[in-house]
Design goal:
two-stranded antiparallel sheet; 8 helices; signal; alpha+beta; single chain; 4-stranded antiparallel β-sheet
């Protein structure tokens, strides 16, 4: 939760150009001051505490007395999570967008100069938030198998794992497809595509031709 507060303050700094500093933070509270507090006596600050799985702002002074600032984000405390928040909707609409294109967009829209590492990592985090974490999906395969068999009687599902309980392969044939093959030409077309995610692999699909064609 503290990370969420820091991210919001980071977005504020990007939008306004004002810099900030943290003081006496722990998992239960966050205090943020204007970076010019000591030199100008600026009173801007936010103090939030953790209550019921969220942070509640207890005190806040929203006005700066340190003068106007030119928008300069070169010294913002950057993080991959902060960048992910800025690009989330871009990645949702264009999942294949390249990190270099994200770097250009952030430079144009926010004046941010980020490294390729931040762009790449932020895109990865955004994809995980949208689609879930690849590795965790394998834990749901047993549930998927049982659900298919339960809701599609006659379907055949084979889930193979090795001696270390590591996934090897999975075969699925729905009952409707199996029954429909009786009315197709006795030819099976097999095609496959390589999976390019972290865990690699291959997805094979078998199709047949309608007997009336």
């Amino acid at each position: 939760m503290v990370a969420l507060v820091l991210m919001v303050v980071g977005l504020y700094s990007i939008e306004t150009g004002y810099k900030y500093q943290f003081s006496n933070n722990d998992p239960g509270r966050v205090t943020v001051y204007c970076v010019k507090k000591e030199s100008t006596g600026c009173l801007w600050h936010v103090h939030a505490v953790s209550e019921f799985d969220s942070f509640v702002i207890k005190t806040m002074h929203s006005e700066h007395f340190c003068g106007f600032v030119c928008k300069d984000v070169t010294s913002c405390l950057m993080s991959s999570k902060l960048v992910e928040n800025l690009i989330l909707e871009i990645v949702r609409g264009m999942p294949l967008v390249k990190p270099k294109d994200l770097m250009t967009t952030l430079k144009t829209d926010y004046g941010l100069d980020i490294t390729y590492y931040y762009a790449y990592t932020a895109k990865k985090i955004a994809l995980e938030e949208i689609h879930g974490i690849d590795g965790l999906c394998f834990h749901q395969l047993k549930w998927l198998k049982n659900t298919i068999v339960e809701n599609n009687p006659g379907s055949r599902v084979i889930l193979d794992i090795d001696s270390t309980k590591k996934f090897e392969r999975m075969f699925i044939c729905f009952e409707a497809s199996s029954y429909g093959f009786n009315h197709c030409r006795p030819i099976v077309y097999l095609d496959g595509t390589f999976l390019k995610n972290k865990h690699k692999g291959c997805l094979l699909a078998a199709t047949a031709k309608n007997g009336n064609q």
